Structures are given as structure tokens and as C-alpha cells.
Amino acid sequence: MSNGKRIDFLVDELQNDDWIVREDAAELLAEIGDPEAVEPLIKSLDDDDWHVKEAAALSLAIFADSRAVDPLIHLMKDEKASVRYAAALGLASIADERALKVLKKAIEDDNPIVRKVAKLGIDAIEKKE
In the Cβ-directed half-sphere of 59, how many Cα atoms lie within 13 Å? Predict the structure, then answer.
């Protein structure tokens, strides 16, 4: 693994039967900061539990890796506002123009926090251009 860090245990825990363990693993992968965690975290965006999806999206915001853009865009359709917020935060962190359309739509989200983060993301993308 990169930088000599061992993340294989946490990556394996992303498949644990207990959603709490999966959520914790996603959060710890962000704390470690090893870029090898990006792909496993992207896969966790499809988790059955919203807690895990939210944690994975928030962790991906730390990495700001463009590989996460399309999966995070897809997550913006989630029924759970906290998951949409986490996805919007990830997209704002990456500031990729591919997210502009979905973030502009999110300005009309029912949740005020999602709206606020969407605006931040739009600003970040426009400053980057």
C-alpha cells in the first residue's frame, strides 16, 4: 500500500455485515488518507445502508479525487438528505465541471444544508474555470 500504510483491514471491513462497522471503516479510511482507499470508498456509495453511503461520500470529499465525480453525482438522487449533503460536499471538494448541472438542480433541494453546499460547489467550480 502507498506510504507503507496498511488499509487492507479497513477495506475488508467495508464488507462487514454490520453497517456500523462499515460506517466506521469508511470514516477511518478518510482519517488515514491513503489514496488506495478511493476505489473501495466509491464502491461503498452503493451500500444498502444510508449511514455507510453518507460516510463514504464524506470520506471521498477528503480525497477530492475526480474518479468519485460520477458516483457522487448519482448519489445526489438519494432520498436521504444527509446522503445528498455528503455527495454535494464531495462534489464541492472536487470542483469538477461535470457536477455543475446536478449542483444547480440541488439549489432547489428541500433541505437547506444541501442547498447551501450545492452553492459552495458551484462557486468552487466557477472559480476553477
Answer: 32
Q: What would the pLDDT profile of 89-110 be if each residue is shown by its tens digit?
A: 999 999 999 999 999 999 999 9
Give the three-state DSSP class for 6. coil
The structure's pTM equals 0.92
pLDDT tens, residue by residue, 13-42: 999 999 999 999 999 999 999 999 999 999
Q: How many contiguous H segments (helices) and E segments (strands) does the chain have?
A: 8, 0
User: Residue 12, Cβ neighbours under 10 Å: how many?
Assistant: 11
Three-class SS state of 21: helix
**Do residues 75 and 60 make contact, with C-beta atoms less than 8 angstroms apart?**
no
What is the residue type of 99? A
- For 68, residues 6+ apart whose C-beta sits below 8 A from its C-beta are 38, 41, 42, 60, 90, 94
CA-based nearest residue to 55, from 65, 45, 67, 66: 45
